Amino acid sequence: MTARAADRARYDRATAQLDAPVAIVDLDAFDANADDLVRRAGGKPIRVASKSVRCRALLERVLAREGFAGIMSFTLAESLWLTRSGFDDVLLAYPSADRAGYAELAADPKLAAAVTVMIDDPAQLDLIDAARAGGSEVVRVCLELDTALTLLGGRVRIGARRSPLHSPAQVAEMARAVARRPGFKVVGIMAYEGHVAGVGDAVAGRPLRSRAVRLMQAAARRELAERRAAVVRAVREVVPDLEFVNGGGTGSVQHTAAEDAVTEIAAGSGLYVPRLFDNYTSFRGRPAALFALPVVRRPGVGVVTVLGGGYPASGAPGADRLPVPYLPEGLRYDPQEGAGEVQTPLLGPVADDLLIGDKVWFRHAKAGELCERFDTLHMVEGDAVTATVPTYRGEGHTFL
Fold first, then answer.
1. If both were cysteines, with which of 68, 151, 163, 170 could 146 make a disulfide (CB 3.0 to 4.6 Å apart)?
2. Distance of alpha carbon 179 from alpha carbon 174, whole angstroms
């Protein structure tokens, strides 16, 4: 029996009394992935990206482990909810226009002390001030640095379009703008190099593309390390007591951690290890989060139909954004139908071994997005479900 076949047998036994669709987290794999992230971080603390987990129980589990500290959230409403739930260090990774949320933040000392918001434009400070509604608490802010690699005098750009702050001078001027405004305090800098941390460099069947990605990422790491250090020096001239410099992501942990200017690493997807993280030379994780769909039809030889399955991930549309049939091995989509909203046909000789009611296990493309489809996650240890916990959705929250 192969390792994957053994996993399928374990998951089927563990969920034998549960009707599919069902989602699980293999806690042995989850914990092993957490240990690997800590090893790669080389002693620097890891701030957990909540969008990649979206389950309070699992956030608590990983933050109880040595090497992890703090949460990187994705909306202001989520940040406030997490703080009220007992988390005391929440960095909001994206600018917000949530006026009601800012009013709550500015009026509550506990929230204001625990939550740091993201800015890259003075207009965002104006919005926060206009939303205060009399709240006088100092708002902690983090400045986001644009990490994109620019070539040929700026005519070529490689990287996500996020912050407009690219140079040390621009970030330092933003820090001065904050310092001039009462009611705000710069406490950190964030720089997420998604073109390094979020792009696989070993795509199966694409050797030339993979080599090109590796060359690009090596150049991007060198350029960003130098620029990030200069940015930190420039900002510290304005804010000597800067608390943190956050960088990286699951795919770049060890590279970002090697930079002296960086004080903490962000990561989250590496806990679940969805399919987009299969194509990296820098690390190998264990798939920890999976979902199962039930076989409901057998239309013919070499084909079964499962209920549901159309769970595409965000990002540029493509086949890599779809879940993949994982267990049993040997199933594939019908190219004429793909993953369906209500039903999904699957092809392959192994389909003839499946019976009505059997489970087919899938891996999704992006980590936390799975939790937008399921109210609960069943925690599997060995061949048993040892706990069932709610996702954000299960607690009545869909923040985006």
1. 163
2. 9
pLDDT tens sequence across 59-74:
999 999 999 999 999 9
DSSP characters over 15-65: TTTSPSSEEEEEHHHHHHHHHHHHHHHTTS-EEEEGGGT--HHHHHHHHTS
C-alpha distances in angstroms, 169 versus 64, 180, 326? 39, 16, 49
In sign, the C-alpha dihedral spanning 347, 349, 355, 359 is negative
Q: pLDDT digit string (tens) for 320-352? A: 889 999 999 999 999 999 999 999 999 999 999
Q: Which pLDDT value is given to residue 141? A: 98
124, 147 in Cβ contact below 8 A? no
- DSSP secondary structure of 102-130: HHHHHH-HHHHHHEEEEESSHHHHHHHHH
- Three-state DSSP at 7 gives helix
37-51 residue pLDDT tens: 999 999 999 999 999
Task: Identify the CA nearest to 141 among candidates 110, 169, 181.
Answer: 181
pTM attached to this predicted model: 0.93
* Exposed / middle / buried, residue 342 (Cβ in 10 Å: 0-12, 13-18, 19+): exposed
Q: Three-state SS for 9? A: helix
Q: For the chain, where are the alpha helices, taking DSSP H only?
A: 3-14, 27-41, 56-63, 76-84, 99-107, 109-114, 122-131, 168-179, 194-197, 207-238, 253-257, 269-272
